[in-house]
Amino acid sequence: MQTYKAARKLVALRKMEKVERTLGLIKPDALLAGHTGKILDRIEAAGFRIVGLKLVHLTREEAEAFYAVHRSRPFFSSLVGFMSSGPVVAFVLEKENAIQAYRELMGATNPAQAAPGTLRALFGQNVERNAVHGSDSPENAQREIYFFFSEKELIPIHAQIRAQV
């Protein structure tokens, strides 16, 4: 019996070693509308593990730094103003192929074009006030995660499994 349990834990560990992390944000519109719990419930129901979570209010300068990749875009000033207009919930998710899986759960940037049942279709208002943000690549995920979180603030899921083996 003990060998079987150890083997199951090793299989789980190997599977966990393929996991990605991604950053997600619940934007001010969705937070102020009271959708935080509903959004987090849907994320967990989709099989993501939340390994970091915090409520923050970005200053204009912080929002400019976070969205610096969009600085030359015509919507930059409006986006920065919106993202610094109220608190956001920042979280780090883990799952196999987390970046792509979370982007699919979020839906298209424009809620009117998002598939039914996606977070943006359910909770977004328009292209800017679209309820949630998610990293779009492994490089951006790493940059965005460490913009909001230190390593100490993230729960090491892998370490928990290893300790049980």
Mean pLDDT: 90
CATH topology: Alpha-Beta Plaits
The strand order across the widest sheet is 2-3-1-4
Instruction: Give the proportion of residues in helices.
Output: 40-55%
Indicate the overall shape: globular
Write the H/E string, N to C. Answer: HEHHEHHEHHEHH
Radius of gyration: 17 Å
Weakly predicted, low-confidence segments: none
Number of structural domains: 1
The rounded distance between the terminal residues' Cα atoms is: 14 Å
- Strand count, sense and closure of the main sheet? 4 strands, antiparallel
Number of strands: 4
Corresponding CATH architecture: 2-Layer Sandwich
Question: Structural class, from helix and strand content?
Answer: alpha+beta
> Helix tally?
9
Name of the CATH first level = Alpha Beta
Tell me what the structure shows.
There is one protein chain. The protein is of the alpha+beta class and 165 residues long. The chain has a single domain (19-155), classed as Alpha-Beta Plaits (2-Layer Sandwich). The protein contains nine helices and four strands. It has helices spanning 2-16, 28-32, 36-45, 60-66, 76-83, 98-106, 119-123, 138-148, 157-164, and strands at 19-26, 49-56, 88-96, 132-134. The protein has a four-stranded antiparallel β-sheet, sandwiched between helices. Helix 1 (2-16) packs antiparallel against helix 9. The chain is globular, with a radius of gyration of 17 Å.
Relevant terms:
Alpha-Beta Plaits, alpha+beta, 165 residues, 4 strands
Topology:
Elements: H1 2-16, E1 19-26, H2 28-32, H3 36-45, E2 49-56, H4 60-66, H5 76-83, E3 88-96, H6 98-106, H7 119-123, E4 132-134, H8 138-148, H9 157-164
Helix pairs in contact: 1-9
